[in-house]
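> forwarded from #structure-qc
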């Protein structure tokens, strides 16, 4: 009798333990799933904000282009750079002070566009600190964010210096680079997160600071220029070869470099040629030093774009 009672009690305890353990596991899984869903929702909200900022960038860009096509009699800036507020000594030049008074008019289109561009840039910075403090990405991926940040800042800088953005065709290298980086950033917000969210999300202040510092480093400006120049070099090679070969110096000149007139442009041209050969986008025939031809892989990499 006693043995039966003990066995019964043990069975009940075991059953309760199994039920309790199952409940705890279920609660843990449910909590993680709820956290996953909430973070996923926030990621999609951030992606929507990015889409809006991308559209705002294009709206400002098109308005800025239209503004610059107006006749000089309808513009009040004399094509001068806006004065900096941190000049030392500040605005001692009467002509610059006169300029500041003109463009400070609340109805000035250029100042309004500059304000919109600055506001969009500030909202983009908020997205950068969000992803730096939440996502766990590789160093190379943070570098892509840094390049996109500098690409996004170009519009404000060009308005400030009263210069055109210069994207006059759909396959402009800078324009294509901007679009590629924008797509990369967007997919980081929209990509499905693994169920193991502990690895997908970052909760370390040190790692968040490291990521944000990496994104906002000025070295990415030079990296951005390098990527645009590389694409321009590849486009020039595609245009010049057409199934044949051409001289590296001619490709460099078509890409905007001046290897003959400026010795400093010679090394970049040779380096770009070597890089394209290394990745398989170009080929250099033996015994024909200084000549290149584009490969099918290179033609596919050139691709195309829509305005």
């Amino acid at each position: 009798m006693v043995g039966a009672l003990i066995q019964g009690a043990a069975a009940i305890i075991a059953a309760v333990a199994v039920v309790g353990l199952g409940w705890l596991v279920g609660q843990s899984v449910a909590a993680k799933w709820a956290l996953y869903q909430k973070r996923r929702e926030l990621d999609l909200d951030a992606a929507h904000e990015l889409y809006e900022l991308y559209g705002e960038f294009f709206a400002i860009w098109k308005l800025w282009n239209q503004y610059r096509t107006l006749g000089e009699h309808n513009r009040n800036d004399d094509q001068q750079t806006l004065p900096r507020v941190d000049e030392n000594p500040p605005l001692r030049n009467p002509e610059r002070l006169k300029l500041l008074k003109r463009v400070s008019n609340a109805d000035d289109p250029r100042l309004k566009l500059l304000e919109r561009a600055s506001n969009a840039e500030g909202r983009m910075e908020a997205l950068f600190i969000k992803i730096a403090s939440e996502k766990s990405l590789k160093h190379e991926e943070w570098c892509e964010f840094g390049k996109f940040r500098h690409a996004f800042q170009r519009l404000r800088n060009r308005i400030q210096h009263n210069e055109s953005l210069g994207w006059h065709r759909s396959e402009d290298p800078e324009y294509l680079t901007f679009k590629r980086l924008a797509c990369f950033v967007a997919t980081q917000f929209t990509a499905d997160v693994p169920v193991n969210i502990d690895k997908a999300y970052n909760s370390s202040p040190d790692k968040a600071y490291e990521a944000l510092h990496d994104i906002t480093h000025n070295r990415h400006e030079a990296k951005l220029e390098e990527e645009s120049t590389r694409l321009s070099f590849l486009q020039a090679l595609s245009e010049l070869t057409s199934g044949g070969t051409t001289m590296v110096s001619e490709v460099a000149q078509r890409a905007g470099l001046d290897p003959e007139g400026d010795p400093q442009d010679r090394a970049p041209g040779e380096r770009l040629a070597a890089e394209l050969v290394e990745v398989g986008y170009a080929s250099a025939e033996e015994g024909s030093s200084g000549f290149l031809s584009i490969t099918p892989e290179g033609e596919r990499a050139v691709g195309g774009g829509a305005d």
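QC bot note: The chain is about 70% helix and 5% strand. The longest helix spans residues 2-68.
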